[in-house]
């Protein structure tokens, strides 16, 4: 019985424009979106950590900002590098690592948002019970 002994060492990324005139536009677009995301989240974290009155009520916002930075940094820098170098190849291990980090911080985002929503729900229910007295 014969088996398939083919091994995958790299993936070829498709879907982006092969037009060389579009490469600078894509590079500028992705770089600007990445910088706005990272700098915005860093400013949020800095604002929360610099004011002691915001530590308790905004604790989860700071965690959400950190998770967003890591979530975005899992894929966008590799994409920007691929656009710059005109490389459309990613190694198998690199792909698995990128997917692991992407899913990890994506789930972390979801969990922080869930905890924040539950906290708001508890506050609303608590206020409703106080007002009914």
Stretches with pLDDT under 50, minimum 5 residues: none
Global Rg: 21 Å
Q: Domain count, please report it.
A: 1
**Strand portion:** under 5%
Main sheet specs: 2 strands, antiparallel
Mean pLDDT figure: 87
**Overall morphology:** elongated
Q: Secondary-structure element order, as H and E? A: EHHHEH
Report the strand count: 2
Which strands sit side by side, in order, in the main sheet? Answer: 1-2
Q: Give the helix level as a range of percent.
A: 55-70%
Subunit arrangement of the protein = single chain
Termini distance? 78 Å
What is the helix tally?
4
Secondary-structure class = mainly alpha
GO molecular function: G protein-coupled receptor activity
Protein name: Olfactory receptor 7E24
Domain G-protein coupled receptors family 1 profile: 40-133
Subcellular location: Membrane
Q: What does this protein structure show overall?
A:
- It comes from Heterocephalus glaber (Naked mole rat).
- InterPro entries: GPCR_Rhodpsn (IPR000276), GPCR_Rhodpsn_7TM (IPR017452).
- This is Olfactory receptor 7E24.
- With about 130 residues, the chain is mainly α.
- The chain has one domain.
- It is built from 4 helices and 2 strands, in the order βαααβα.
- The chain has a two-stranded antiparallel ribbon.
- The radius of gyration is 21 Å and the shape is elongated.
- The termini are far apart.
- The mean pLDDT is about 85.
SSE layout and pairings?
Elements: E1 10-12, H1 23-50, H2 59-73, H3 76-85, E2 89-91, H4 92-131
Antiparallel strand pairs: 1-2
Helix pairs in contact: 1-2, 1-3, 2-4
């Amino acid at each position: 019985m014969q088996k398939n002994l083919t091994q995958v060492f790299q993936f070829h990324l498709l879907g982006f424009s092969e037009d060389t005139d579009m490469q600078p536009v894509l590079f500028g677009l992705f770089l600007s979106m990445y910088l706005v995301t990272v700098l915005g989240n860093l400013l949020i974290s800095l604002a929360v950590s610099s004011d002691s009155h915001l530590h308790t009520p905004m604790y989860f916002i700071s965690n959400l900002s950190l998770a967003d930075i890591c979530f975005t940094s899992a894929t966008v820098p590799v994409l920007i590098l691929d656009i710059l170098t005109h490389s459309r190849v990613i190694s198998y291990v690199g792909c698995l690592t990128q997917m692991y980090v992407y899913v990890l911080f994506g789930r972390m985002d979801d969990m922080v948002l869930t905890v924040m929503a539950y906290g708001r729900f508890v506050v609303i229910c608590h206020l409703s019970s106080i007002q009914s007295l």
